[in-house]
Design goal:
Helix content is 31%, strand content 25%. Strands 1, 2, 3, 4, 6 and 7 form a 6-stranded antiparallel β-sheet that branches.
Length: 206
Amino acid sequence: MDSEQKNKRRPAGGFSLLELLVVIAVVLILVSMASLGMNQILQSVRMEQAGRMILEEIQVARQLAASRNLSVELRVIEMPRGNVPGAPVFWCLQSGMRDMANTGNFTTVGRMVQLPVGVALSPEPGLSSILGSLTPLISTNPAYRYIALVIRSTGALEPVNGLPLNQPWFMTAVPENKLGAPLADISDFVTVQIDPWTARATLYRP
């Protein structure tokens, strides 16, 4: 009799199928939350890196213009990102020397700066007065178009139509999947503001 009752007892420390399913569901939820948080952290790091890269390239162009006593052209380049299909985006910067004879020759200085994957400069006027107000030029390389900022040896930016000199010029890097979205829908971005009189750049983060 006692042996029959013992056999009917539930094994100590065991789990039912329902309990195992609940545990698995909780673990999956926690993993999903951790993955989402990690993606947000990585996106924020890439955005910080993009802001520093833009700021540093502007400083390089400014210092180059002063040291050589010549005008330096800073190009913000729009082209497809690598081998990824899709519309071209503004994601590269390149400094170079303009041809004084205005023949269209452009001698690059240093390497082309490429913003981190997933980050691009917004062409929306409300986010980037520089990209939103100026018409991209067609390069000798048909793969890309560009917006040109010219920094004079005095440090001042060369005036262009559509950008008043009494207001800061600016451009904003956003997540590439947020291109075209209003600022209210973008929580992570970095804005680089340029003083047109001195070409000094300042970084702003939300």
